[in-house]
Design brief:
By secondary structure, the chain is of the alpha+beta class. The protein has one domain: Arc Repressor Mutant, subunit A (Orthogonal Bundle). It has four helices and three strands; from the N terminus they run αβααββα. It has a three-stranded antiparallel β-sheet. The model has no long low-confidence stretch (mean pLDDT 92).
């Protein structure tokens, strides 16, 4: 029997990173403040998790100025989408195998 726990991605273990990826996976680009409000996080807490996801290639950042105000948005990379789907598939396999 395959040990599906080994297929879980440690980068998505944290509930905040799981939340960030879940939001980004279903949206094209999401603003920093929107993520912060949805996940009820401080700027620093969100920034540190985003930094980790970006460093590992799971998300990308776009920084721009709109009417002289900074606007930072994020989206999932193709690599991030693939890795997150593998993580979700592993979770589903664990749940499915517990029912049998």
């Amino acid at each position: 029997m395959k040990n599906f726990i080994l297929d879980l991605n440690k980068n998505f273990d944290n509930r905040i990173r799981l939340g960030i990826m879940s939001i980004l996976i279903v949206n094209d680009w999401v603003e920093f403040n929107t993520l912060k409000e949805m996940l009820e996080l401080t700027d620093g807490n969100l920034a540190s998790h985003i930094s980790s996801l970006e460093k590992n290639g799971y998300i990308e950042t776009k920084k721009q100025f709109i009417a002289k105000k900074p606007k930072t948005t994020y989206r999932v990379t193709q690599f991030g989408r693939k890795e997150f789907q593998k993580h979700i598939d592993a979770l589903e396999s664990i749940i499915k195998n517990q029912k049998e």
